[in-house]
Amino acid sequence: MLKKDFLDILVCPKCKGKIKYEAKKNAIICNKCRLKYHVLDGDIPDMLIEDAEKF
Ligand SMILES: [Zn+2]
Questions:
Q1: Are the beta carbons of 46 and 37 closer than 8 angstroms?
Q2: How far apart are the CA of 13 and the centre of ligand 1, in A?
Q3: What is the pLDDT of residues 1-37, one digit of tens each?
Q4: What pLDDT does residue 18 have?
Q5: Domain boundaries 4-54, corresponding CATH code
Q6: Residue-level pLDDT at 4
């Protein structure tokens, strides 16, 4: 589980905008870029654009 204060400083690497953590999917979502970043091992966000999934 990601900590909220950590999420507050995380931004989308593509648009530098705010991201949203979806606990249910264990993924970080950027609604602007429509990209889904994976969270590895439950608490390590993989914020690489090339690893992100389009949705
Ligand atoms: Zn973005």
A1: yes
A2: 7
A3: 678 888 889 999 999 999 999 989 999 999 999 999 9
A4: 94
A5: 2.20.25.10
A6: 82
Residue type, 12: C
Task: List the beta strands (DSSP E) in 1-55.
Answer: 20-22, 27-30, 35-40, 44-45, 53-54
Cβ-contact 35, 53 below 8 angstroms: yes
Distance in Å, CA 53 to ligand 1 centroid: 12
3-state secondary structure (DSSP) of residue 31: coil
Tell how far the Cα of 49 is from the centroid of ligand 1, in angstroms.
9
Exposure string of 2-20, with b = 16+ CB inside 10 Å and e = fewer, is beeeeeeebebeeeeeebe
